[in-house]
């Protein structure tokens, strides 16, 4: 099909051409004396995206899923109790990973569409007088439902309970796009991946750990090898890596960081907010609902609920086969009930209007009772009136 495939899945996201060009390099010697000139400033500049001065950043040749494992296996001890709220597929998978690794997982079910219930969490932590819970696992942006949780609120609840557990945050679909403040929010382990807000191919787990978490590494007896933070630290201090890094990925990350920092992180957050709000206005104009309940709306991905007599999979297949647009599917509990528009990373108003228009065409083709042009009209009015 002529023209581009329009990629509106929430990851991998679109890679800017500057980043693609930066990755197009010959292979190089990763033990050379000049390799640290690339790698050391990368680790420093990543801190500006995680908003941490006290913490330390890491890049593993892996994906976000590995980030969960790095946090759990480096900072905890075998069988430690961890607390998690399960309100979407990614929270579910993190819970599952912790169980497979033998941790004592206390999981609480939360309706999909909502995020971390702060009052219930505070009450649970207050109850835990002997501090048996060693870590809270918090999914910041639940990509499967388009739900953003309040991580500052999680920290507040932990402090109000006087609880010393570590706070690990899955920020795979939030960091580098939604507001994220590692130091201010007292996050001990922040987990991200290359293929979402960082606008790169999949293949890097991009992480940050607080000094408190790194101190816990010293006493942890959990077995680990490839995912050892200590091995990374030993090599990273001289600007090297413990095993072969993906050098094209690191060049791409250099360019992606330059783009993000040039735009300014606060502007990146504001851009995503505008993008998300335009999509929400379009959905309202179609007379449809989003999966996220009020107060939990995500600015990087919107999950749109289809009427009970429709199957969201048909919208996705029509959009792909007829209009060359890739949308996100509903996962497990919401399969067929929602489709998702990713608006994360290298995205602007007019690109996103392509998705809104394409979704509208696909819904009309599938007999949805919507007014042609209504979503596009609502979005363009919002984007026009808020464009600078
Ligand atoms: C994509 C995603 C993951 C998984 O990352 P992979 O890179 O696919 O391993 C984890 N958590 C969230 C919230 C995600 O969006």
TrEMBL record:
Keywords: Aminotransferase, Pyridoxal phosphate, Transferase. Its cofactor is pyridoxal 5'-phosphate. The keyword Transferase applies. One of its GO terms (biological process) is glycine biosynthetic process, by transamination of glyoxylate. Residues 37-331 form the Aminotransferase class V domain. One of its GO terms (molecular function) is alanine-glyoxylate transaminase activity. The modification N6-(pyridoxal phosphate)lysine is found at residue 196. This is Serine--glyoxylate transaminase. The lineage of its organism: Bacteria, Pseudomonadati, Pseudomonadota, Gammaproteobacteria, Methylococcales.
């Amino acid at each position: 099909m002529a023209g581009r495939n329009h990629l509106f899945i929430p990851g991998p996201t679109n890679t800017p051409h500057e980043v693609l060009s930066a990755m197009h390099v010959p292979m190089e010697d990763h033990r050379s004396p000049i390799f640290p000139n690339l790698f050391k400033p990368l680790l420093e500049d990543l801190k500006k995206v995680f908003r941490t001065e006290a913490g330390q950043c890491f890049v593993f040749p892996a994906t976000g899923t590995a980030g969960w494992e790095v946090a759990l296996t480096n900072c905890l001890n075998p069988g430690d109790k961890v607390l998690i709220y399960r309100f979407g597929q990614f929270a579910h998978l993190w819970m599952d990973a912790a169980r497979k690794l033998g941790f004592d997982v206390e999981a609480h079910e939360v309706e999909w569409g909502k995020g971390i219930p702060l009052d219930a969490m505070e009450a649970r932590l207050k109850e835990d007088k002997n501090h048996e819970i060693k870590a809270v696992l918090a999914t910041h942006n639940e990509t499967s439902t388009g739900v953003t949780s309040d991580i500052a609120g999680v920290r507040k609840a932990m402090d109000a309970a006087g609880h010393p557990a570590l706070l690990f945050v899955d920020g795979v679909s939030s960091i580098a796009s939604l507001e994220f403040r590692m130091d201010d929010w007292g996050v001990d382990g922040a987990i991200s991946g290359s293929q979402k807000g960082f606008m790169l191919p999949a293949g890097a787990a991009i992480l940050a750990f607080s000094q408190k978490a790194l101190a816990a590494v010293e006493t942890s007896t959990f077995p680990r090898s490839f995912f050892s933070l200590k091995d990374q630290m030993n090599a990273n201090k001289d600007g090297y890596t413990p095993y072969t890094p993906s050098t094209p990925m690191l060049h791409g990350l250099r360019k992606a960081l330059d783009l993000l920092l040039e735009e300014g992180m606060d502007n990146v957050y504001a851009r995503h907010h505008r993008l998300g709000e335009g999509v929400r206005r379009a959905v309202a104009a179609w007379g449809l609902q989003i999966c996220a309940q009020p107060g939990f709306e995500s600015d990087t991905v919107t999950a749109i609920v289809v009427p009970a007599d429709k199957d969201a999979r048909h919208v996705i297949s029509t959009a792909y086969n007829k209009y060359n647009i890739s949308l996100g599917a509903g996962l497990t509990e919401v399969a067929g009930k929602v489709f998702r528009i990713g608006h994360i990373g290298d995205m602007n108003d007019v690109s996103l209007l392509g998705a809104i228009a394409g979704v509208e065409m696909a819904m009309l083709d599938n007999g949805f009772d919507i007014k042609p042009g209504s979503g596009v009209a609502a979005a363009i009015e919002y984007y026009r009136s808020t464009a600078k």
